[in-house]
Amino acid sequence: MLLGAMFLAALATPVCAQVATTAGARADSPYLSQEDAAARSARVSNVAYTLDFQLTGEPTFSSTSRIDFDLKDKSAPLTVDLDKATITALTVNGKKVTPVYNQSFITIAASDLKVGRNTVSVGFTREHSTNGEGLHRYVDKTDGRVYLYSHFEPAAAHQMFASFDQPDLKATYTLTATAPKDWEVISSTRETGIQDQGATRRWTFPATPKLSPYNFSLHAGPYKKWEDNSGKYPMRLFARQSLASQVSPADWFRYTKQGLTYFDEYFGIPYPFKKYDQILVPQFIYGAMENAGAVTFTENRFTSPSAMTASDRQNLASTILHEMAHQWFGDLVTMRWWNGLWLNESFASYMATLGSATSGEFANPWLAQYRSKQGAYRTDESITTHPIEVPVPSTANAFDNIDAITYNKGASTLHQLRQMIGAETFRRGVHNYLTEFSYRNATLDDFIGALSKASGQDLQPWAKEWLYQPGVDKLSAEFACSQGKISRFTLQQSAANAANPTLRSQLVQVGLFNLVDDKLTLSSKQAVTYTGASTDVPQLVGQACPDLVYPNLDDWGFVKVVLDAKSFATARTHLSSIEDPLLRSMMWQSLSDGLIDRRLSLEEFILTTLANAPKETDYTLLRQALGNIGTGKGYLRTFAAGTAIDRRLSANMESVVWAGLLADRGNRDRARSWLDTYIDIASSDAAIARLGDILNGKVDAGGVEIDQDIRWSIIEQLNHINVPGSEALIAQETARDKSESGQLAALGATVLRPDAATKATWLAKIQSLDNSEPFSRLRVAMGNLYPGGQNALAEASAAQRLATLADIDKKADRVFMRTYAGTMIPSNCTPASVDRLAQAIAANPDLSAGTRRSLLLRHENDVRCVAIRAAFDQSQKK
User: Fold this and answer.
1) 3-class SS at 866?
2) How many domains does the chain have?
3) Whole-number Å distance between alpha carbons of 658 and 665
4) Per-residue pLDDT at 14 exceeds 60
5) How many angstroms separate the Cα of 734 from the Cα of each of 77, 242, 258, 348?
6) Aminopeptidase N-like N-terminal domain: which residues (predicted)?
7) Do 715 and 733 contact (CB within 8 A), yes or no?
């Protein structure tokens, strides 16, 4: 979603670094401001691109971009975006022009332009990118084949072709590309001709419908291709040749065909791009991207040497549906500026859930939505929260607020809105919106206006309350009983963070549960619209006094539920007796919240989880419970490693998890989840020995096939805790597995080792910013350099990492910094670490927005960890 130039000796045109300095001139920056974008779109219209590419597989490509457009006036120069290229020719309206170019955009003098139709043609060469943006180049280490793919969101199209790189200047794209003879070339339309030229072929593509630049794409290479024409629209799937055996085309085509049928009917508008291609690509920096008619997916998330688990299939279906929804909501109708990106993503996430709910294959799609909201709750109650709709001053800020609030809170508000106005009214409003703005740009007001008109309600007050105010609220039930009946019942609402005090109105269901034969059974439910700090619910007075109250039954609302004391105690002791999987997931989440909010000690949290996890019958909830075990082990590693309680609780965890694995023999999905957890928590001598025996084939792990992914997981864990002989295993396994994923796994295992010299070497590589290592490797190194349980090694470089943060933030691009700030800011769960982070916050007020947010969040999380640690220490003194 989220270089150097090679010069041609005889053809290179000198580059002028300055730009026009007249009043109102565009700032000399690699980023485009909203103000400058608006000024350009006010003058430019009716854009058409004619693009020609020479693709050889070498590090550099050459291209010609011709832009035809209408210009309203000649009052000022005009800029054309092009990133880090060597311009070989520039003509404006047939006249050769010396480029005025600052490596970010070309400035066309007003005197060379005319009112009406203009043509600008730019010939250039440029290095392929290696950071996942622009036209990315990858060399497969297993067979030497070269693969290319494009990624432009946000505002990276000008890394591949000269353009007006802003979403509200939609255009048509006519493409030709010359590529090696054994390559496929894929774009937004299907090719109309392939001309054999000996060692190469020339591909010709017809003009696309009108698209924003970030929705266009070009992918090329010797991809393996699968085709399916059984549906209404032709479908193709592409992947690297060396990964073809790890792809399940039947699953891809099944979910794609179902999705196209569903969305055609739901939106009431035929799929707009005629064919549906999906491409699995390497080194992708996001999960997937909705390029019109040619969707890209990160291959490491959707390929595996083993058959997909139930969770894998649901993830695949959900991601396919998410990107497919974008073909209408995002590609057909596109936001005017990047502040509308949240609506694109929220809507696609919500539609993926709706689509999954109708497929019949997945039992609990709404459970998946509930689970995805937990990150949004945590983010929304933190110091780094923000409104769903926020200003985006420039393309540098486009991804500053793309997070759990954007995706998950946004989707939750849409769910709430649909509940409020009715499912069919919501669908009709969406249809009308898409029909009115097809092949155009729209705003949030346009969307809310369409729903308001469909519902006959003014929804602007709702939008103001939910979309323009940050923060999540807490909701709890307060009740009293007399003679076994409820005598008083209120819903209490409070702000989760005092800095964001807005209290909202919302429709929820209140569920009352009673123990019947030692099982929690729903005795009553009541829809309630609560508002303000306290809302009486007289409808529940006289009902049987409940053993547990859940004030957001079926997850209608976006609110953090805080169980009352009686309900919390009941949840702890009777969690496994709850029949409804969604409610049971909510109780599992209440345990996690109880730990973080310190209503539950770490030991109680671990023991409660271990008592209930083996009884969990739902596969998704088993994974949630096992995640709690991993959380507990993580805290033990952080502040109790090697202590008596660590050894006792860890041995208990290992025993329960291994027993669960053996009990689920024959159930591949469940057994695999138990095994993954066992590998992650193994620390005792017995568990370490067992991992070695599993790796060597001496121990059967509950019938689970020990595939390459599991082998690397074991090796990583053995190196993490520095088991004797584990370092040699890395080299042995690398010789066995020469794939890209194997190379990255070997790197991860290497930097995980508690070896100071290795960590210093990789820290220097990461901070050098010299492009000596591809970003895919740097990202793995950053994610594994300072794992939990290696506090002393992390502490050795902590001061240096904070001291250099501002300088690196200033020099590195935003793609790099999103990973760097998220992994390399030090926090050690000690008061000294908290103080050090506070000092860094005060000393670095001018960090980029994304990096500063990461610093603030790291400090906040460190404060929370210290509080949990203090509660743990206090509990051990009793």
Assistant:
1) helix
2) 4
3) 11
4) no
5) 56, 16, 40, 39
6) 48-214
7) yes
Q: In this predicted structure, what is the pLDDT of residue 369? A: 87
Q: Within this chain, do residues 41 and 179 fall inside the same structural domain, yes or no?
A: yes
**C-alpha 194: how far from its chain's center?**
37
Distance of CA 557 to CAs 38, 168, 499, 528, Å? 37, 34, 22, 11
Q: Are residues 196 and 339 in the same domain?
A: no
3-state secondary structure of 863: helix
- Of the three residues 429, 447, 467, the one that is the final residue of a domain is 467
Q: Please tell me the distance from the alpha carbon of residue 479 to that of residue 489, in angstroms, as a whole number.
A: 4
323 is catalytic: yes
Pick from 196, 222, 248: which residue ends a domain? Answer: 222
CA separation (Å) from 267 to 234, 235, 432? 20, 20, 9
Residues 63 and 199 in one domain: yes
Q: At residue 601, does pLDDT exceed 50? A: yes
Tokens standing for 56?
């050889």
Residues 6+ apart with CB under 8 A from 173: 49, 51, 187, 188, 207, 208, 211, 216
Q: Are 569 and 420 in contact (CB under 8 A)?
A: no
Q: Do 484 and 423 belong to one domain? A: no
Q: Which residue of the set 323, 345, 389, 733 is catalytic? A: 323
Q: Which domain holds residue 152?
A: 34-222
Who wins on pLDDT, 20 or 397? 397
Please state the rounded mean pLDDT for residues 677-695.
Answer: 97
Nearest residue to 194 via CA among 208, 179, 207: 179
pLDDT at 294: 98
Could you give the angle at which helices 602-612 and 644-663 cross, rounded to 10 degrees? Answer: 20
Q: How far is CA 596 from the centre of its chain?
A: 24
Does 230 reside within a domain?
A: no
Classify residue 532: in a domain, yes or no. Answer: yes
| SS3 call for 157 | helix
Q: What is the pLDDT of residues 712-755, one digit of tens each?
A: 999 999 999 999 999 999 999 999 998 888 999 999 999 999 99
Report the pLDDT averaged over residues 631-649. Answer: 93
* 89 lies in the same domain as 173: yes
In the predicted model, what is the mean pLDDT of residues 336-362?
A: 90
Question: Which pLDDT belongs to residue 90?
Answer: 98
Closest CA to 346 of 367, 370, 362, 325: 325
Based on its alpha-carbon atoms, the radius of gyration of the chain, rounded to whole angstroms, reads: 28
Looking at residue 24, what is its pLDDT?
64
Vertex 503, ends 502 and 507: CA angle to 5°? 135
Range list of β-strands (E), 741-808: none
Q: Given the DSSP bridges, would you call strands 294-298 and 146-151 parallel, antiparallel or unpaired?
A: unpaired
Using an 8 Å Cβ cutoff, are 442 and 336 in contact? yes
Residue 499 and residue 350 share a domain:
no
Dist CA 443 CA 738 (whole Å): 48
Residue 728, domain member (yes or no): no
State the CATH number of the domain containing residue 532: 2.60.40.1840
57 and 118 in a single domain? The answer is yes
Contact 256, 324 (CB under 8 A): yes
CATH number of residue 150's parent domain: 2.60.40.1730
Q: CA-to-CA distance for 742 and 737, rounded, in angstroms?
A: 5
Span 812-825, pLDDT tens digits: 988 899 999 999 99
Closest CA to 290 of 343, 215, 352, 190: 215
Q: What is the pLDDT of residue 771?
A: 85
pLDDT, tens digit, for every residue of 429-466? 999 999 999 999 999 999 999 999 999 999 999 999 99
Does the model's pTM come out above 0.85? yes
pLDDT confidence band for 368 (50 / 70 / 90): confident
Q: Are residues 218 and 361 in the same domain?
A: no
Asked if residues 163 and 211 have their Cβ atoms less than 8 Å apart, the reply is: no
Residue 87 lies in a domain: yes
Return the number of other C-beta atoms located less than 10 Å from residue 816's C-beta. Answer: 19
What backbone phi and psi angles, to 5 degrees, belong to 82?
Answer: -160, 125
pLDDT of amino acid 311: 85
Q: Is 196 exposed, middle or buried (0-12, 13-18, 19+ CB in 10 A)?
A: exposed
